[in-house]
């Protein structure tokens, strides 16, 4: 019996050693507010070993506000989502901050109009858009451009996938949609049209239709080294994806359970952007939006314009009745992590592959 136990104890000790080594990795909980390729870079970092010493646990919420609540509660440390929540985080004192801009929408987000609908026939209609999210913001900006008062319509709180059925059944006059839902509606609803999209120059120049990287403020304060490492790993993953785009898109497909064609319909295949999809900021571009690196960001934005963009969003939320006042946007921003990486000499500038 003792002879039999010897190897067993040795095997147990080896297993314990392995387990202890695995446990030594610091777990970082990362949230994706919806299943979306642009939010998957830290998952690529995990799979390709770009965050050495960390175990990244990625959670897909498919509930943007629920993910924000989890971030504020410290259940997740990092959250990738649209930047429109930043003013609300300030207003509610959640301690959540935006640390960097990740990628602007480059035409993937549309206002889709039902057959026969245009600005002149919109009054009194039902409009589908998710409240306190990019869809409501885009719909409001588009309505402003068409001189349609925001209270002339009935707002229905629907995510893009939830709006497909009501659009096809004729229950909505317009809806906020993105791919692949745009194609599904357009192919099955003859006469439907796009009223506007985020790839138009004037929309890009606002800077407000962008995905951002949020972090829990306590995570930054108590684990600043990890916050810096993970932010760098996220941009390292962007660079890896640029150099290995086909493999990266396949990994995203496996992780998100999307067909590769749908991944490419959003993020493209050139390692940088898809016109009609999204545009991935490299580190240098994002650092310039933060004002942490000299030079101008893309799309006519000014250096350090992150706070201007957030104030513009705040103005819209006041008009929508979601907020009652305009706050100092700097209260919802922490660009010091980007600045630290700049000071450490980190740089990244990538162009689309041919």
TrEMBL record:
Signal peptide annotation: 1-24
Primary site of residence: periplasm
Keywords: Signal
A Pfam family recorded for this sequence: NMT1_2
Subcellular compartments: Periplasm
Domain of life where this protein originates: Bacteria
Keyword Signal belongs to the record: yes
Family of the protein in this entry: Belongs to the bacterial solute-binding protein SsuA/TauA family.
Protein's UniProt name: NitT/TauT family transport system substrate-binding protein
